[in-house]
Amino acid sequence: MVPSDDTADVGPAPETDASDLAVVAAAETEPSGTRFEVYRDDIDDWRWRLVHRNGNIIADGGEGYSRKAGALNGIQSVKQNAADAPIFRTEDDR
After folding, report:
1. The model's pTM
2. Rounded Cα gap, residues 51 and 8, in angstroms
3. Annotation: CATH topology of 18-81
4. 3-state DSSP: the chain helix, strand, coil percent, rounded to 5?
5. Of 26, 35, 42, 83, which sits most exposed with the smallest number of CB within 10 A?
6. How many angstroms separate the CA atoms of 15 and 12, rounded?
7. pLDDT tens digits for 20-65?
8. Ramachandran region, residue 44 (left: φ > 0; alpha: ψ -120 to 50; beta: rest)
9. How many angstroms separate the CA atoms of 60 and 65, rounded?
């Protein structure tokens, strides 16, 4: 969900409500400097991405959502389920 005008724009979307602003405020104060961004892409779908403090995209949802709530739910799912996710090797240790 890259903003149609500029992918670097990290400001609140026009449809942002108070709960969205709380999420953004919490992300801006995280000690790690990483933040989740929710944005609209070129076809008007909602997407999310996790951005490192240096601007690199660490992860994204991989799909667009017709509603902003879908993207926010995706973020919550990652936060709840990924912390203890095991690491699987798919290649030899050479």
Report:
1. 0.62
2. 11
3. Double Stranded RNA Binding Domain (3.30.160)
4. 25, 20, 55
5. 83
6. 8
7. 555 555 545 556 789 999 999 999 999 999 999 999 999 999 999 9
8. left
9. 12
